[in-house]
Design brief:
Endonuclease I-creI, 4 domains, Endonuclease - Pi-scei, Chain A, domain 1, alpha+beta
């Protein structure tokens, strides 16, 4: 039969165990000493997790597909040295933990897990998920899940730390991007004028400058000698050794200057296509500012982006101006105005800007990449990005739900992580509906929801809207009675046990919401508080009764000791003179006192003793 996957790759020898060097070394010592104690082997909850390669995971570098994190490997290998993965720790929180090993392998069987709030995961059967049951939380293998099981997910997630620095020197196309440097830098590194050219012309003029023959130049530049002679003739009056402040990014990198030096001396960048039709140069942003984040958010939401321009459509003049202001502040370009089919737009017609945004922010690339640079930004730019996105495409429905719709599921994933970082829980789903461009064609869209008053209030506090109409509707719904609209750990069984143990009436304490069909709502926390209050009161009464009993124990002990003392001294009642005096004082007949003295009254059912008649 088929070999079970998990058994096939289970370590059979100590040499095959990875990531537990201290433990395996101790086991080797036990074996060498022939001293094997009773051993209990345990591992952290979730050991054995495996998901498909396209699954997004939160790392200290941002959101990445786990396939790119692990790499194209078979079996175990060491992870990147700086890798940290967001991990659920023993304190019920998250931290970025460096994995000891990464593992890649083809799996024979996969399980798809779909949740009612729109999340979807494809995992191996042994992958463990944190499942809510009647007793709390337990790690359950995916193959053991049943329809209706409730899977725990965090209401808030950590976001990786970053300084907002943009490494554009590493990201941009080194052949297509030219840089404008300071005269000081150009003179220090003697950048020749020949470098301010593209393609074969640059190769030819560099050969002419260095005194190479036409044949040699033609061979190196892969052009006919006639072309070489033509370029040589045109450059006859040009000093090719003159210092140039413009060169390609590839030449700049070849100079060996440090990244900090290059950042200091590069004043502008410029996209130069093969035909040398140069785009207008711009100053490259060195870090993710709130202005750049706003521009990205608006462009992501309502813009059409091609190779040469970014066209932002919207009917709200305030958003159109926000787009233009962000472009001016960030790149020094002023978008042109226009209108298409009755819809106003602003367009950035600058290929340098487009190339910069595509290369530095893959979220604009249209290839499903997630914007990890935005995730690693500081809080202010992150919130500016969210605010711009929701200003453009978000709205609050008549039912008081914050809703965002996008055809790109990876954008919704990005927003989900950003909202989770702000403590705003969101749900998602997919639906088919007609496109808004008037074509009538239906397509699949991804919809993100924020629904509870507490979550809306958090969104209003951390992100908010800049548009007054949206801001007012958000504030109105955030102020309503809070219902978080998410499940919490069910405690029905604990409540039932407590009521049964203390003889508390559940009918008097619980409302109809506390039942297995409607779990986890915030209003049942009041029910639990009532149960705890009644239980506390009953325990306090029991404690008072116990203290009273303890105080009476000494008196009870003394009372229990009286019969023993009486037996030792009762013969003193036998003299008639004593009984007469006592009888007169107490009213008890003399013959009865004699019975007590002789112990006759103690024997139940005993015959009466003869009376002493003097």
């Amino acid at each position: 039969g088929r070999e079970i996957w998990i058994e096939k790759y289970r370590p059979q020898r100590l040499e095959e165990v990875v990531g537990h060097d201290a433990i395996t070394e101790r086991l080797r010592r036990y074996i060498n000493q022939q001293d094997l104690p009773h051993l209990l082997f345990a591992g952290p909850a979730g050991t054995g997790k495996c998901v498909t390669g396209e699954t997004p995971v939160l790392t200290n570098r941002g959101v990445e597909q786990i396939g790119s994190v692990v790499g194209d490997i078979e079996g175990f290998t060491d992870p990147d040295g700086d890798l940290g993965v967001a991990t659920f720790d023993e304190g019920d929180g998250f931290e970025f933990v460096e994995p000891s090993k990464v593992f890649g392998k083809q799996a024979d069987e996969l399980i798809q897990v779909l949740t009612r709030d729109g999340n979807e995961s494809t995992v191996t059967p042994e992958h463990r998920l944190l499942v809510i049951d009647g007793d709390g939380l337990s790690w359950t293998r995916a193959e053991q899940l049943q329809p209706g099981d409730r899977i725990a997910r965090p209401l808030e997630a950590p976001l990786p730390e970053g300084d907002g620095r943009i490494e554009w020197l590493d990201e941009l196309d080194e052949e297509r991007v030219f840089v404008h440097v300071t005269e000081e830098f150009a003179a220090r590194h003697e950048i020749p004028a020949s470098q301010n050219n593209v393609g074969a012309k640059r190769e030819v003029l560099e050969g002419v400058r260095t005194g190479q023959t036409d044949e040699r130049i033609a061979e190196r530049a892969d052009v006919p000698e006639k072309t070489v002679r033509d370029y040589r003739r045109r450059a006859a009056d040009t000093d090719l050794d003159a210092t140039s402040t413009v060169c390609s990014l590839s030449y700049l990198r070849s100079l060996g200057a440090s990244s900090e030096t290059l950042r200091e001396h590069v004043e502008r960048i410029q996209f130069v296509p093969p035909n040398n039709n140069r785009s207008h140069p711009v100053e490259p942003p060195q870090e993710l500012t709130t202005g750049l984040a706003t521009l990205l958010g608006l462009a992501l939401s309502e813009a059409r982006i091609d190779r040469t321009r970014i066209k932002f459509y919207n009917t709200d003049e305030k958003l159109l101006e926000a787009f233009s202001a962000a472009a001016r502040d960030t790149f020094g370009v002023d978008p042109k105005r226009g209108e298409q089919n009755g819809v106003p737009y602003r367009v950035i017609d600058n290929r340098t800007v487009v190339h910069y945004l595509r290369r530095c922010f893959a979220v604009l690339d249209g290839e499903g990449a997630v914007g990890s640079r935005i995730l690693r930004a500081s809080p202010k730019p992150r919130r500016a990005f969210l605010r711009a996105v929701f200003d453009a495409e978000g709205h609050v429905t008549e039912d008081g739900i914050l809703e965002f719709t996008q055809k790109d599921g990876d954008v919704v994933t990005l927003l989900s992580y950003l909202l989770a970082g702000e403590g705003v829980p969101a749900r998602r789903k997919t639906e088919r509906k007609a496109a808004t461009n008037g074509s009538g064609q239906k397509r699949e869209y991804h919809v993100l929801y924020v629904s509870s008053a507490s979550a809306l209030s958090r969104f209003e506090e951390r992100v908010g809207f800049t548009l007054p109409t949206k801001a007012e509707r958000l504030a109105e719904n955030a102020a309503r009675d809070s219902n978080p609209n998410h499940d919490t750990v069910p405690v029905q069984s604990a409540v039932s046990d407590l009521c049964e143990t203390l003889y508390l009436s559940k009918d008097d304490l619980l409302t109809g919401t506390l039942n297995p069909e409607t779990p986890g709502r915030e209003n049942y926390l009041a029910d639990i508080e009532r149960v705890l209050g009644a239980a506390t009161e009953k325990v306090e009464l029991a404690q008072e009764a116990l203290e009273t009993v303890q105080r009476l124990e000494a008196d009870i002990d003394r009372i229990e000791a009286l019969p023993a003392a009486w037996v030792a001294e009762r013969d003193q009642l036998e003299p008639i003179s004593v009984r007469r005096d006592l009888s007169e004082e107490t009213g008890i007949r003399s013959d009865r006192l004699l019975e007590y003295a002789r112990g006759v009254a103690e024997r139940e059912g005993a015959a009466d003793a003869p009376a002493d008649d003097d």
